UniProtKB/TrEMBL annotation:
Signal sequence, start to end: 1-21
Stretches assigned to the Lipid/polyisoprenoid-binding YceI-like domain: 25-189
Coiled coil start-end: none
SUPFAM superfamilies assigned: YceI-like
Species assigned in the record: Giesbergeria sinuosa
InterPro entries on file: Lipid/polyisoprenoid-bd_YceI, TTHA0802/YceI-like_sf
Protein's name according to its UniProt entry: YceI family protein
Keyword presence, Signal: yes
Keyword vocabulary terms for this entry: Signal
Pfam families: YceI (PF04264)
Length: 191
């Protein structure tokens, strides 16, 4: 009897270890999530802008070290602080908002160092073209938000892209660089 209880306990322990944690669903917090771009302006200064409207979701499994991201940015919500520049960025010269109103980042590959996310590999769709992009994390954490009474996970991520790979060629002939720095600040609330 004692041997069979030991065997039963051992089997139960092995079975419990074989069960993996399920990924948790998180909703993007639009008040703490922004995508900002930076591009040199003739080497004299840096033009910056961000997209104010966005929505999306994250699936995250810390134990399994996996995750998924799906975020959509409303290109018409571009905000540089200068209305005339915003209008030009929305025009057919650059983002062509009439034909391509959104940009989208989708990922199902997270990289970890211990429990910390260090990078996210995904696909960025802009102007109807999709290219691979790796967002490297500069910081990442999960915490219990005292106001929301829920877990929130997020971080600051960065990548440099060749904008011409998406057909964003405006100003290249004048000396504007092809490379654009993306800085993504994201927080998502556990559902």
């Amino acid at each position: 009897m004692r041997k069979s209880l030991f065997t039963l306990a051992a089997v139960a322990t092995l079975a419990a270890g074989a069960v993996q944690a399920a990924p948790a669903d998180y909703a993007i917090d639009p008040t703490h999530t922004f995508a900002t771009f930076e591009i040199s302006h003739f080497g004299a200064s840096v033009n910056r802008g961000r997209f104010d409207k966005k929505e999306g979701s994250v699936q995250f499994d810390r134990a399994g070290k996996t995750g998924k991201v799906d975020i959509t940015f409303d290109i018409a919500s571009i905000n540089t602080g200068t209305a005339a520049f915003d209008k030009h960025l929305q025009s057919a010269d650059i983002f062509d908002v009439a034909k391509h109103p959104t940009a989208k980042f989708v990922s199902d590959k997270f990289h970890f160092d211990g429990d910390k996310v260090t990078a996210v590999d995904g696909k960025l769709t802009l102007l109807g073209k999709t290219q691979p992009v790796t967002l490297k994390a500069h910081q990442f954490a999960c915490y219990n938000n005292p106001m929301l009474k829920r877990e929130v996970c997020g971080g600051d991520f960065e990548a440099t892209i060749d904008r011409t790979a998406f057909g964003l060629n405006y100003g290249v002939d004048w000396g504007f660089p092809k490379n654009v720095r993306l800085v993504v600040q994201v927080e998502a609330v556990k559902q």
